[in-house]
Design a protein that fits this description.
Elements lengths: L6 E8 L3 H8 L1 H19 L6 E6 L2 E5 L5 H16 L2 H4 L8 E8 L4 H18 L3 E6 L13 H13 L3 E10 L4 E12 L2 E3 L1 H10 L3 H19 L5 E4 L2 H5 L1 H12 L2 H4 L2 E6 L3 H4 L1 H11 L4 E7 L16 E4 L11 H16 L3 E4 L5 H9 L4 E2 L8 E2 L1
Parallel strand pairs: 4-5, 7-9, 9-10, 10-11, 11-12, 12-13, 13-14
Antiparallel strand pairs: 1-3, 1-4, 2-3, 6-7, 6-14, 6-15, 7-8
Helix pairs in contact: 1-2, 2-3
Length: 389
C-alpha cells in the first residue's frame, strides 16, 4: 500500500505570525523559534519513523502519521503540544495565546484536502478560545460528537431547547481603522451542546433548515445586551442578523421595541447582514435600515462583492459600513483584478460617506496593500483574534 491509504492522524500546528514577531523581536528570534520548534517536533516524533513533518507556511507546521489509530494519535498530539508549549517563547506573556495544535484522524483511505479542511476547522475553534491549547478529533461518518449522527427531529428539538434557554457563548473579534485604532468588536456565537462549544459551521445549516433564524438571532442579541449591561463599558459591538430575521415582521417588531427601551445601548450597536439580502428585499431593506438607525444604532453590509451587479445599490443605501468579502483579500497584493474592484468600491463608498472595511486579513502584505487601495479599516487574524466575552 502507498503511504496514507490506511488513513491516520493529520496535525496542523499554528503559531505566531512570524512577520509580526520579526518586527517585535528581530529576524534572529524568528529563526531561532522555528528551529527550536522543528527540533522539538522531531524529537517527539522519533518513535514514529513513518511520520511526515513539514512546514505548511511561514507560521504553521504539518504532521501526518500513516496508519495510526485515534487513541494513539491523541497521545502523540498531546506530546507534541507539551514539547512546544515548554519553549520559552510560549511560556512568556507574548506567546501565551500563540500556539494551537489541531489533530484530526481518519481511518481508511481519504483525501488530504478533506483532512486539511477538518484540521483548519478545529484550529479555528482553538483560536477562538485564545490561550495555547490543543485538540484531537476523529473524523469520518461515525466519528466525532453524538450530534454528528442526529436525525432531523433530534437536531430541531435540541436547537429549539438550546436557543430558548439562550445557551449561547459569545466571542468577539476587534476591527481597526488604518491607524490601528479600534472601531468595534464583531460578535461571534457558539452553542453549548453536550458540554462542547459547537462552531457556527456545524449548527447554522440546521438553523436554516428549520427556519430558526429569528430564534437564534434573538438569543444572541439577548446574551449580548446582558453582557453590555453587566460590563458597563462604552465598547461598540457589531452583531450579524440573518436576512430572514430582518424581513420577519414579528422579529423586527421585537427588535425595534427592545432597542427603543435601551437608548444608551443603541449608540454602541452595529447591525450587519450579508450583501445577498439586497437580492431578496429590494426597497424593504432601506425602510428597515432607516427604522433601526433612527434608534441610534448603525448598519453594515458584510461579504460585499459576491454579487458584483449590486455596486449600483450603493447610491441608494444609507449604511455606515461595507465589509469586502474575504475572497477578495487573499492574494490581493498580486491580484490586479481584485485591486481594481476594491479601488472602485473605495471611491464609491467615499462618495457616500460609507466606511469601507476588509474581512479576513491574515497577512501584513494584505493589510498594507488594502490601505493603498483606499480601504479604511478591517479585521482578521493578522489584526486581532477572537476572544471570549
Amino acid at each position: 500500500k502507498g503511504r496514507g491509504e490506511a488513513g491516520g492522524p493529520f496535525m496542523l500546528i499554528h503559531t505566531v505570525d512570524m512577520e509580526t514577531l520579526a518586527q517585535q523581536q528581530g529576524q534572529q528570534a524568528v529563526d531561532q523559534l522555528r528551529v527550536a520548534m522543528a527540533r522539538r517536533l522531531e524529537q517527539t516524533l522519533a518513535p514514529w519513523p513513518q511520520a511526515i513533518l513539514g512546514r505548511r507556511d511561514h507560521c504553521a507546521f504539518a504532521v501526518f502519521l500513516p496508519a495510526c489509530g485515534f487513541a494513539e494519535s491523541k497521545g502523540i498530539a498531546e506530546g507534541c503540544f507539551q514539547a512546544l508549549a515548554a519553549l520559552h517563547f510560549f511560556v512568556s506573556k507574548a506567546g501565551r495565546e500563540q500556539l494551537h495544535l489541531a489533530s484530526v484522524t481518519h481511518i481508511g483511505q481519504c483525501q488530504l484536502q478533506a483532512l486539511l479542511e477538518h484540521a483548519e476547522q478545529v484550529l479555528q475553534d482553538l483560536q477562538l478560545q485564545g490561550h495555547n491549547n490543543w485538540q484531537a478529533r476523529e473524523v469520518g461518518e461515525t466519528a466525532g460528537h453524538a450530534y454528528r449522527r442526529w436525525h432531523d427531529s433530534q437536531w430541531q428539538a435540541m436547537l429549539e431547547r438550546t436557543l430558548a434557554n439562550e445557551q449561547v457563548a459569545l466571542f468577539a473579534q476587534q476591527a481597526f481603522d488604518t491607524d490601528q485604532r479600534p472601531l468595534f468588536r464583531e460578535v461571534l456565537a457558539r452553542l453549548s451542546i453536550d458540554d462542547h462549544l459547537i462552531s457556527a459551521e456545524a449548527f447554522l445549516p440546521m438553523v436554516e433548515r428549520f427556519n430558526l433564524h429569528a430564534l437564534f438571532d434573538q438569543a444572541v442579541l439577548n446574551c449580548l445586551i446582558n453582557h453590555m449591561e453587566c460590563v458597563g463599558q462604552d465598547q461598540p459591538y457589531c452583531v450579524n442578523l440573518s436576512p430572514c430575521s430582518l424581513v420577519e415582521t414579528a422579529f423586527f417588531d421585537w427588535l425595534l421595541q427592545t432597542l427603543k427601551s435601551k437608548p444608551a445601548l443603541c449608540q454602541r450597536l452595529i447591525f450587519e447582514t450579508p450583501e445577498s439580502i439586497l437580492l431578496q428585499t429590494g426597497d424593504q431593506l432601506q425602510q428597515r435600515i432607516d427604522q433601526l438607525t433612527a434608534t441610534g444604532c448603525r448598519f453594515s453590509l458584510d461579504h460585499f462583492g459576491t454579487s458584483s451587479q449590486l455596486l449600483a445599490s450603493l447610491q441608494q443605501l444609507n449604511v455606515h459600513y461595507i465589509k469586502i468579502d474575504s475572497s477578495f483579500i487573499r492574494g490581493i497584493a498580486e491580484n490586479q483584478g481584485n485591486q481594481f474592484y476594491i479601488r472602485t468600491l473605495a471611491m464609491l463608498a467615499n462618495s457616500r460617506d460609507i466606511t469601507l472595511l476588509a474581512q479576513g486579513i491574515e497577512h501584513k502584505a494584505e493589510w498594507i496593500k488594502l490601505q493603498h487601495l483606499g480601504v479604511q479599516g478591517g479585521q482578521g487574524f493578522y489584526l486581532a483574534r477572537p476572544v471570549a466575552l
